[in-house]
Design brief:
Mean pLDDT: 76
Number of strands: 5
Radius of gyration: 23 Å
Shape: elongated
Distance between the termini: 50 Å
CATH superfamily of the largest domain: Winged helix-like DNA-binding domain superfamily/Winged helix DNA-binding domain
CATH class of the largest domain: Mainly Alpha
Number of helices: 9
Strand content: 5-15%
Strand order of the largest sheet: 3-5-4
Oligomer: single chain
Number of domains: 3
CATH architecture of the largest domain: Orthogonal Bundle
Low-confidence stretches: 27-42, 44-49, 210-217
Largest sheet: 3 strands, antiparallel
Order of helices and strands: HHHEEHHEHHEEHH
Length: 217
């Protein structure tokens, strides 16, 4: 039954894709030749295409929960949930709902994510996730020492991601475990994300770059 349901879903998706392509072709034929540009076709497709990753049945249940929190029934809804089972169990569940991207808490995003933007600090919390570490252990794991090491340590401690349990001994806090777990899940999601049509459209409009090159950061 599962195989039949999956096959039917695939057939429905192919049928929908065919209808989308047929609509694009019809739109393109109706336009003057001067308007038939790659950017125009991609822009039209981006407006018609929705991305969905995950089990459809699970997504429907999550969607139903998020829809209750969206202001006016439209906007952005995010559900985060997780569990860490060790000597003790930590559970978390958080729903974020905003009317639009302009309402996202940008200051909190910077304050909480900036300490994790450095590869040395990421390596530090990954090392601490295994267990309690000494100053020497962390210095060896990250290849840092002196002022550079204590700068990274203080940034993580200031954000509440690590805690000093005794002189020269540190542990990853529960908040740090939540941050590391959620970021790992987010990175996994983004790695699976299909090519962004909107990004290709923007790249097409900017021009002047080779297809294989990336703009300097």
């Amino acid at each position: 039954m599962d195989a039949e349901r999956d096959l039917q879903r695939l057939i429905d998706e192919v049928r929908a894709l065919r209808e989308t392509v047929a609509g694009l072709v019809g739109t393109a034929r109706a336009q003057p030749a001067s308007q038939l540009t790659l950017a125009g076709v991609v822009e039209d497709m981006a407006e018609r295409t929705a991305v969905q990753i995950g089990d459809p049945a699970e997504l429907q249940r999550i969607e139903a929960q998020l829809a209750k929190h969206l202001p006016g029934g439209a906007g952005i809804g995010v559900l985060i949930a997780g569990i860490v089972q060790e000597q003790t169990t930590s559970r978390w569940h958080k729903i974020g709902a905003w009317g639009g991207f302009a309402e996202l808490p940008d200051q909190d995003i910077v304050r909480l994510l900036e300490p994790l933007s450095n590869p040395r600090r990421v390596e530090m919390i990954r090392h601490l996730a295994v267990g309690v570490s000494t100053t020497g252990d962390l210095q060896e794991a990250t290849g840092t020492s002196g002022g550079q090491f204590y700068h990274h340590l203080s940034r993580l401690a200031g954000a509440g991601y690590i805690a000093r349990i005794s002189q020269g001994r540190f542990a990853l806090s529960t908040r740090g475990k939540v941050a590391l777990s959620c970021l790992a899940a987010l990175c996994s999601l983004l790695a699976e994300w299909p090519e962004d049509i909107g990004e290709r459209r923007a790249h097409e409009k900017l021009g002047g770059h080779d297809a294989g090159s990336s703009p300097a950061l």
